[in-house]
Design goal:
The complex is a heterodimer. Chain A is of the alpha/beta class. Chain A folds into two domains: 209 residues, Response regulator (Rossmann fold, 3-Layer(aba) Sandwich); 130 residues, Rossmann fold, CATH 3.40.50.2300. A seven-stranded mixed sheet of chain A has the order 7-6-8-9-10-14-15, with helices on both faces. A five-stranded parallel sheet of chain A has the order 2-1-3-4-5. The longest helix of chain A is centred in the N-terminal third of the chain and has 24 residues. Chain B is mainly alpha-helical. In chain B, the strands form three sheets. Chain B has a two-stranded antiparallel ribbon with strand order 1-6. The chains are: A alpha/beta, B mainly alpha. At the A-B interface, α1, β7, α9 and α10 of A face α1, α4, β1, α9 and α10 of B.
């Protein structure tokens, strides 16, 4: 009998571990029938294209960002490959918004022979992969990992998005300039570098601008369902604007709980708020009037944006968010830099790394997310954010 | 008045913990095993109800019943496949298996329903038409001229909690099946000698526990409407803490532990620090367990050496 039990136990363990593996390596959520990977078939033959790799949360709670970035980059790669000239071969690996998994995913890409990296999509994993790309001398340009630690002390790590401190100070300046509120409450997530980074600089900038912060409360993983205390604190202190430097998932809970409390301040979010309208079953009326700073406006009427949005909608049936646009810009920035440097796909990652550092610190780039972008030696980009507001379930420019 | 508001928030959070803790404590009390997959059965229940109500527009009550049915079957299947073969194995092996089942359910949900968060519809609202013919949606009662608000979800959760607690106490002490369960929990071997079908009794326990998990899932997601494959895991762990706090194995203890944990958590946030609230909750737990190692209402059983 004992043997039977043992064999059953072993069988169970094997089934479970297989199932766990299945979940880990699954690259796209079950729902999206059409995956970018399927379109990779047009990729040029090996040796003639630059191997471009990146990691991002393609599954898990932050999957909306990873998939958006992957899809945006894929559209750019397909367009560039169709033009002739510089060719790319794009590969994305899943990191589930987890630093450890991101390093594993990065190692897979390194074994594949990645020459240029798109870093990671979210901050925490990108801090981990940035240390690896720095040690391996592979140039990396992240579409959206915005924490300062991502680029700090690494000469070959660049960002396409604003850095968190810039988001925080830009938000404070914007609120003060437009007179959106005088008494501000902040609710932030204290175990998340992204949220903390924005919070800290927002508070510092607000102090200089004489913007009163009347309530400053936090939450953390495992404690992110009930916000009644934080909201009651903001309400008791008469805050007329609540700043939410966080991702959209907790933000949606905050909005619905404030609504049931009958608390109705102005809401101001950051780029992590992008995506709230795509949640299944979310009542867009709750997000009415929510403002956010984002560098990309899918409703813009310039040719580049219209072409990109149309292509994205045709392929994936949804409106691209800022992450898709950032990743799209990353690929085009690479194209411009590679052409200017006269780089060829047979160069090693290390040679390309030196050329790219030279190019990125000296070039000016026009993309979907800004005109005349430049980078400084730390890897931070300079571009100006656009204020957006949600009206009738869609983003509208504030200016 | 703010104090009372915080108290109500605490009770509303605590009642959710309590209803999950009831399932934990029930299974532990009878099968003497910690079913760490309980939180994930909750998540499955919530998804079933979500799809029934949102996608197939069934009435909420049908959705809940369907979720209970699916979860009951799931509970029996999991017990049969994963736990029954380990009946004679050391309890540590069963514990690890339960953690494995928990991961299995989470990842299966990830594959089946994707990671994109869903917003759970709140069925606990009263719709009425006001004088101007506009539809008014009320989601709670207001007392003292609107200064105090209690949502219908909270009221429903507390009521359902108490009903379940009374029903379970009656069931385990009065019915034949319940007596069989208690016999199994005291001594499996002796129970079998007395003609009790131990396997069927334990399966029944899991069936009831998982059915309760479905109800808990629907209530959890009605109160806090974001639904993702990991929705059940953290409340599951908190509820396990609540069950230990109240005395694991004791049915009234689960209710008391859950409510206290919720109230302490909210008060710690409101009056001490939002940053340290979880640390304070667990510090209180440690102190209680130092003074009363069996939990608040747990029975102290002397070990014979």
């Amino acid at each position: 009998m004992k043997k039977k039990f043992l064999s059953l136990l072993l069988a169970m363990v094997m089934v479970l571990s297989l199932a766990a593996c299945g979940g880990d390596t699954e690259e796209t959520p079950a729902e999206s029938g059409e995956t970018p990977a399927e379109e990779g078939s047009e990729a040029p033959a090996e040796g003639t294209a630059f191997l471009l790799g990146g990691t991002g949360p393609l599954t898990g709670g932050a999957a909306i960002y990873g998939n958006a970035a992957y899809r945006g980059a894929q559209i750019a790669v397909d367009e560039i490959n169709a033009m002739g000239g510089v060719q790319f071969d794009l590969r994305y690996e899943d990191d589930q918004h987890d630093a450890e998994k991101a390093v594993n995913a990065y190692n897979v890409l390194k074994d594949w022979g990645m020459q240029l990296s798109l870093g990671s999509v979210t901050s925490k994993p990108c801090e981990a992969t940035a240390a690896e790309t720095y040690a391996d001398r592979i140039f990396a340009l992240t579409p959206s990992a915005s924490s300062t630690a991502t680029t700090e002390g690494k000469d070959n790590m660049f960002q396409m998005c604003f850095m968190d401190p810039n988001q925080g100070s830009a938000s404070a300046t914007y609120i003060s300039e437009k007179g959106l509120g005088t008494k501000v409450a902040i609710i932030w997530k204290n175990d998340d570098v992204y949220s903390k980074g924005i919070h800290d600089t927002f508070v510092a900038e607000a102090a200089e601008l004489n913007l009163a912060i009347v309530s400053d409360t936090t939450f953390a993983d495992g404690n992110d369902t009930d916000f009644s205390v934080q909201l009651a604190d903001a309400q008791a202190n008469d805050a007329d604007l609540v700043f939410l430097p966080m991702y959209y998932q907790p933000a949606s809970l905050i909005l619905s709980q404030a609504n049931s409390m009958g608390y109705n301040p102005k809401w101001f979010g950051v780029d992590g708020m992008d995506g709230i309208l795509t949640m299944e079953g979310f009542d867009p009326a709750l997000a009415e009037g929510v403002m956010l700073l984002t560098p990309f406006n899918a409703d813009a009427t310039d040719d580049k944006t219209v072409a990109f949005v149309t292509e994205y909608q045709d392929r994936y049936g949804e409106t691209p968010n800022q992450f898709a646009a950032d990743a799209y810009d990353c690929v085009y920035a690479y194209k411009q830099a590679l052409e200017a440097a006269g780089a060829t796909p047979d160069m090693t990652a290390e040679e390309l790394c030196d050329l790219m550092i030279q190019q990125f610190t000296s070039m000016t780039f026009d993309g979907l997310t800004g005109e005349g972008m430049t980078w400084d030696a730390t890897g931070a980009v300079s571009k100006s954010p656009k204020g957006m507001v949600i009206e009738n379930g869609a983003y509208v420019g504030l200016d | 008045m703010t104090f009372l508001n915080f108290l109500i928030s605490g009770i509303s959070l605590g009642s959710i913990y309590a209803i999950i803790a009831l399932g934990y404590t029930m299974v532990y009390g009878i099968a003497k095993m910690l079913n760490f997959a309980h939180g994930d059965v909750i998540m499955v229940g919530a998804y079933i109800c979500f799809y029934a109500v949102s996608r197939y527009s069934m009435p909420p009550l049908v959705g809940v019943l369907l979720a209970m049915l699916v979860c009951t079957v799931l509970g029996i299947v999991v017990e049969r496949l994963a736990y029954k073969p380990l009946r004679a194995a050391p309890s540590l092996a069963v514990l690890i298996t339960a953690i494995g089942v928990s991961y299995f359910l989470q990842n299966a949900a990830l594959l089946l329903w994707s990671s994109n968060p869903k917003v759970f519809p709140n069925a606990f609202v009263l719709k009425s038409v006001d004088a101007e013919g506009n539809e008014v949606v009320k989601n709670g009662v207001e007392l003292f001229a609107g200064q105090l608000k209690i949502s219908y979800v909270t009221l429903a959760t507390i009521l359902i909690c108490i009903i379940i607690m009374l029903a379970l106490t009656w069931f385990t002490s009065k019915t034949k099946m319940g007596k069989a369960m208690r016999a199994c929990s005291e001594d499996k071997g002796a129970a079998q000698l007395m003609g009790i079908n131990v396997n069927a009794t334990i399966s029944m326990t899991f069936a009831i526990g998982s059915g309760l998990a479905a109800v808990a899932g629907v209530l959890l997601c009605s109160a806090y409407p974001t639904l993702v494959p990991t929705t059940g895991s953290m409340p599951g762990i908190k509820a396990f803490t609540a069950a230990v706090f109240g005395g694991i194995g004791s049915i009234p203890g689960a209710l008391l532990g859950g409510l206290l944990l919720g109230v302490i958590e909210i008060f710690a946030k409101a009056y001490i620090s939002t940053q340290l609230s979880d640390a304070i909750v667990f510090a209180v737990l440690i102190v209680v367990l130092l003074v009363k190692p069996a939990g608040l209402l747990g029975k102290q059983i002397r070990e014979k050496v």
